[in-house]
Specification:
Radius of gyration: 18 Å
Structural class: alpha/beta
CATH architecture: 3-Layer(aba) Sandwich
Helix content: 40-55%
Number of domains: 1
CATH class: Alpha Beta
Distance between the termini: 25 Å
Bound molecules: adenosine-5'-diphosphate, magnesium ion
CATH superfamily: P-loop containing nucleotide triphosphate hydrolases
Largest sheet: 7 strands, mixed
Number of helices: 14
């Protein structure tokens, strides 16, 4: 089977909607299912970096790569967990709008920076954690992406926020990235009891139909406690409601976004959606990675030997 890397931008111009939490825990849950994942932290606040147990790294972010000062292979860091890697953020990224805003290649800069990694086939998924604005970093991320995943809260004016970002998506589709897909919308911090939340979710589903993920991420205190420990809640407290929701979400995500290990079939997809726990064992054994892949056999909860991700020397030199 050919190697395919999916680049997914996790974006919403609004802050505090659960983008970073979704990136960190989706990445963790995918890595636990032996998908190789690279998280690219593009927010100068570096919450994804910290949430995955790494520090902000001066000179170790996408910033010098975008400036052409460093090959991307030099800034990819392993985490404590198998299959889970990150390009950390640093404060310099806060200057990206000013530093890169006038560049002629600003729209394609992230796509071009990621190209050698995508072509290496080392990762199943590259998840881009976007900053909360419609600026150049988010736009350039959407140009680089195969799909955009939008976390939203089911609250007043949610549809207005969605209209803003979908109009950005449409503009990018009309220009620099015609194949950009609305990968999906995922509801975060859901309070299932609230009538308003129910109404908003219904309205969003009416407009976006099958683009809306079934899995709802509940508001859960364990989710909000995890970042300060540097461990995703999926690993920190796997039985918590938040972790279970993110694991179920990852199954739904994989079914929608098959990569090299997946044999897409409606039966597998519905099994994944309805019975994630039971499906785990069968799926894991049915999808043993090929010998040539960089995937380790150990389960994700086991700390990895911190091997760097696989890029060939030729790619590093490129
Ligand atoms: N499901 C959840 N339950 C409880 N708290 C959450 C949940 N998701 C996110 N949070 C908290 O909400 C805040 C904003 O989330 P974050 O993922 O950083 O949003 P964004 O990246 O969109 O700014 C963080 O403090 C985070 O810990
Ligand atoms: Mg964030």
């Amino acid at each position: 089977m050919s190697r395919r890397t999916k680049i997914i931008a996790i974006a919403n111009q609004k802050g505090g909607v659960g983008k970073t939490t979704t990136v960190v825990n989706l990445a963790a849950a995918l890595s636990a299912r032996r998908r190789t994942v690279l998280v690219v932290d593009l927010d100068p606040q570096a919450h994804a970096t910290l949430g995955l147990g790494l520090e902000k790294t001066v000179g170790g972010s996408m910033y010098p790569v975008l400036l052409g000062d460093k090959p991307i292979a030099d800034v990819i860091q392993p985490t404590k967990w198998n299959n889970l890697n990150v390009i950390p953020s640093e404060v310099d990224l806060a200057g990206a709008e000013l530093d890169f805003g006038m560049r002629e290649d600003r729209l394609v800069m992230i796509r071009e920076a990621l190209a050698p990694v995508k072509e290496s086939g080392a990762f199943d998924y590259i998840l881009l954690d976007c900053p909360p604005s419609l600026g150049i970093v988010m736009t350039s991320s959407l140009v680089a992406a195969d799909g955009v995943l939008i976390p939203i809260q089911a609250e007043f004016l949610a549809m207005d926020g969605l209209a803003l970002i979908t109009s950005s998506i449409n503009r990018i589709r009309a220009g620099a990235n015609p194949s950009l897909e609305l990968n999906g919308i995922v509801f975060t911090m859901v309070n299932a009891q609230a009538k308003l939340a129910q109404d908003v979710m219904e309205e969003v589903r009416k407009h976006f139909t099958d683009r809306v993920y079934e899995t709802l991420i509940p508001r859960n205190v364990r989710v909000s406690e995890a970042p300060s420990t540097g461990t995703p809640v999926v690993f920190l407290d796997p039985r918590s409601r938040g972790a279970e929701a993110y694991k179920a979400f990852a199954w739904e995500f994989m079914a929608k976004n098959p990569t090299r290990y997946d044999i897409p079939s409606p039966a597998a997809a519905s099994a994944a959606a309805t019975a994630p726990a039971e499906a785990n064992a069968a799926e894991a054994s049915a999808s043993a990675p090929a010998a040539s892949t960089p995937v380790s056999d150990a389960t994700a909860q086991t700390p990895s030997s911190a091997e760097p991700p696989v890029l060939t020397q030729a790619q590093k030199d490129a």
